[in-house]
Amino acid sequence: MSELFDEVDEEVRREQLKKLWDNYSLYFIALMVLVVAAVGGWRGYQYLEAKKAAEAGAIFEKAVELSEQGKHAEAETAFADLAAKAPSGYRTLARLRAAAEASARDPKAAAKMYDDIAADSGVGSEWRDLAKVRAAGLLVDSASYADIQQRLETSAEPKSTFRHSAREMLALSAWRNNDMTAARKWLDAIAEDGETPPGLRSRAEALQALLPPVAKS
Q1: How far apart are CA 204 and CA 168, in angstroms?
Q2: Whether 136 and 153 share a structural domain
Q3: Are 117 and 191 part of one and the same domain?
Q4: How many Cα neighbours within 13 Å face the side chain of 115?
Q5: Quick one: pLDDT at residue 174?
Q6: pLDDT at 91
Q7: What distance in Å separates the CA atoms of residue 52 and residue 126, rounded to the nearest whole number?
Q8: Which of 135, 205, 201 is CA-nearest to residue 164?
Q9: Which of 93, 113, 142 is the last residue of a domain?
């Protein structure tokens, strides 16, 4: 008797499954097609992105070779083209290199290129700080201390990646513009930072020696 009940139950289950399949098979098939299409689309996207990155890397290397050969105008053009077309990973690097190549022919134009990177919210904060430091380095001999201070003061803060270079340029700019109080401030910041690189520390000590003695009250 129990076997008979089992067979009836099995038959009922088969009938229920058949009804479910008849009612929902199209939806199930459509879902499977969508899943397969989504996976295929994602794999295709990954392939295309990897291909673009590889192509950009090859172009970047050729531009670097042009720079190393002294062909700065050609290298600048190559980096600028790459910055306009490359995936995001190479875009910022290409913009920075294009500005570096431009600095040989027109420091002010190169500084403007760095400024554009520094002002781009789509660029990572460390890259923006690096661009600020590079721009200030091109202008430190000609700009006012107020200009260099505006550019670099936030980059000179204790947690900033490029604080050492920023402080050195601020100290040098203050010294060139006869602001000895500001020069001492930044030289002291360099001296008191235990992570200051040895070479930079030595340059700061040499500049400190050039400052007039502090007047005694």
Answers
A1: 7
A2: no
A3: no
A4: 13
A5: 96
A6: 87
A7: 24
A8: 201
A9: 142
Query: Which of 142, 171, 188 delimits the end of a domain?
Result: 142
pLDDT tens digits, one per residue of 121-159: 988 889 999 999 999 999 999 999 999 999 999 999 998
The helix, strand and coil proportions of the chain, stated in percent and rounded to the nearest 5, come to: 80, 0, 20
Q: At 18, list the tokens.
A: 């058949």
Which of the four pLDDT bands, split at 50, 70 and 90, describes residue 82? confident
Tokens of 144: 């006012």
What pLDDT score does 4 carry?
44
> How much of the chain, in percent, has pLDDT values that exceed 70?
79
Same domain, 128 and 156: no
Query: What is the Cβ-side half-sphere exposure of residue 39, based on CA atoms within 13 angstroms?
Result: 5
Give the whole-angstrom CA distance, residue 150 versus residue 140: 12
Domain span at residue 193 reads 148-211
pLDDT value, residue 5:
43
Same domain, yes or no: 74 and 137: yes
Query: Does one domain contain both 126 and 164?
Result: no
Residue 152: count other Cβ atoms within 10 Å of its Cβ.
Answer: 27
Is the model more confident about 114 or about 16? 114
Q: φ and ψ at 161, to 5 degrees?
A: -60, -40
